[in-house]
Amino acid sequence: MTTETAPSPLVIRHDHDGYVTLVMSNPARRNALSGAMMTALQDAFDQIANSPDIRCVILAAEGPVFCAGHDLKEMGGISECDQHASLFAQCSRLMMRIVSLPQPVIARVRGMATAAGCQLVASCDLAVAASTAKFATPGVNIGLFCSTPMVALSRNIARKHAMRMLLTGDPVPAELAFSMGLVSDVVDEADLEAATAVLAAGIAARSGMTVRLGKQAFYKQIEMPLSDAYGYASDVMTANMQKHDAREGIDAFVEKRHPQWRHE
Question: What pTM does this model have?
Answer without folding.
Answer: 0.95
